[in-house]
Design a protein that fits this description.
- It is a single chain.
- This protein is of the alpha+beta class.
- It has a single domain, classed as Fumarylacetoacetase-like, C-terminal domain (Fumarylacetoacetate hydrolase, domain 2, Alpha-Beta Complex), CATH 3.90.850.
- The chain contains 4 helices and 16 strands.
- The protein has helices spanning about 20-25, 100-110, 115, 160-170; strands spanning about 15, 35-40, 45, 50-55, 60-65, 65-70, 85-95, 95-100, 120-125, 130, 140-145, 150-155, 180, 190, 195-200, 205-215.
- The strands form 4 sheets. The protein has a 6-stranded mixed sheet. A 5-stranded mixed sheet has the order 4-16-15-11-12, with no helix packed on it.
- Strand 11 and strand 12 form a beta hairpin.
- The radius of gyration is 16 Å and the shape is globular.
- It starts with 12 loop residues before the first strand and ends with a strand.
- The structure holds oxaloacetate ion and magnesium ion.
- Oxaloacetate ion binds next to strand 1.
């Protein structure tokens, strides 16, 4: 298997939502009867050294720290028992969300594309080959804003696990090498403003740090 180097950042982003009970509760939502998926375009990626830009007109940008699964091999209709063969590695990612736009979309029954897919809505860290993580189901997942812990979760609390997510997604979207699968956020999501600094990580295996600015143009 050719392991993708996660500097290529040009592939699609497939995201699962509502995958941690405590986050579902804080959103006043209910555990969905079927997995909830949405997409972010490849233009959503932002890497360290570049800022997260609050899109114009957004009044409530939220951080959502997530385990990112990086696909290593083309996966179409794969079975859950084989799904890990298609995983190349992992990273930490932020599913930046314009919560005000998402709430408007939810109440109007409209898609979340703008709320979830704007430029810089997917900050990502380094590619970690899967062999370097012994148990993906027991990894601390944390996010600090200006040094204060906001999200302090663990992948053990994921409702849907990585093999199921990859298998299920592959029934609808052919997953390609370099695609990123976001696996949902634990509780503690909250607002960030221009001037804030977000740090996040998977334990101390991979960490990221991003400044937040207003988009100027
Ligand atoms: O915006 C949401 O609450 C859905 C989502 O992405 C998540 O649960 O990670
Ligand atoms: Mg999310």
């Amino acid at each position: 298997m050719r392991l993708v180097k996660f500097v290529e950042f040009s592939r699609k982003i497939v995201a699962v939502g509502k995958n941690y009970a405590a986050h579902i509760k804080e959103m006043g939502s209910e555990v969905p009867s079927k997995p909830v998926f949405f997409l972010k375009p490849a233009t959503a990626y932002v890497t360290e050294g570049n800022p997260i830009k609050i899109p114009k007109g957004c009044t409530e940008l939220h951080h959502e720290v997530e385990l990112g699964v990086i696909i290593g091999r083309k996966a179409c209709d794969v079975e859950e028992k084989d799904a890990m063969d298609y995983v190349g590695g992992y990273t930490v990612a932020l599913d930046m969300t314009a919560r005000d736009w998402q709430l408007d979309a939810k109440s109007a029954g409209l898609p979340w594309s703008l709320a979830k897919g704007f430029d810089t809505s997917c900050p990502v860290g380094q590619f970690i080959p899967k062999e370097q993580i012994s148990d993906i189901n027991s990894l601390p997942l944390w996010c600090k804003v200006n040094g204060q812990m906001r999200q302090n979760g663990n992948t053990k609390d994921m409702i849907l696990k990585v093999p199921f997510i990859v298998s299920y997604a592959s029934n609808f979207f052919t997953l390609e090498p370099g695609d990123l699968v976001l696996t949902g956020t634990p509780s503690g999501v909250g607002q960030v403003k221009a001037g804030d600094c977000i740090e996040a990580g998977l334990g101390d295996i991979v960490k990221i740090k991003f400044d937040v600015v207003n988009k100027e143009k």
